[in-house]
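Write out the 3D structure for:
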Amino acid sequence: MELQIKDLDQIDRKIQKLDKAARVGDKEARFHIEVLNKYKNHLENFQNIRSLQVTDNERKVVEDMMLLTAKPVVYVCNVDEKSVFTGNAYSESVYDFLKDTNDEVLTIAGKLEAEIAELDETDQLMFLEDVGLSEPGVNKLLQAAYQSLHLISFFTVGGKENRAWTIPESTLAPQAAGAIHSDLERGFIRAEVIKYSDLMYYGSEANCKNAGKLSVEGKNYVVHDGDILHIRFNV
């Protein structure tokens, strides 16, 4: 509720600034006030900005205001080890409270996660199997955060290191290359692309290429989550 109050205060101040211009006939100011009142009414009904259905033009009105309740949220319920699969009364109350929202809710056992983090990879796998988990909860948290922020990862492999790069969804290949270095975006020629699933199946880049699973893509290629990219460029 405190965040909603802060957003309300910010919206009220913005309306006051626009009021004079609106009263003398400024159409843009009137439109902005109309939209701001729509957001205000939503907040006064104890709802968060992110749950309000608006048009792109209406969203742009508050885009530069950085409203707190417009930001995506992932709720994490920390439970005991016995409740990690079923939840408990406290986590159930959180799920019930958020059932009509699109907010992500996760249940993890913090103490268990701390124990997992102290183990090496081999011991982690054995420990997870013993407690009946398929992966650490932190992995699920990262996945949920990426989904909430509309982010994906692509990979570069070979040379001295293999690395994942984070980019927004629907990023074109040249802009993805720019996440690595601005020169790659500026001099982008093409991207050689292998799907993650193909690399896992065939075992190597060479095998993927021999199987016809390497595609050559141009500037309009939309990078997908898990793509392995080799950028060809010239500057």
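Residues 2-23 form the longest helix (22 residues).
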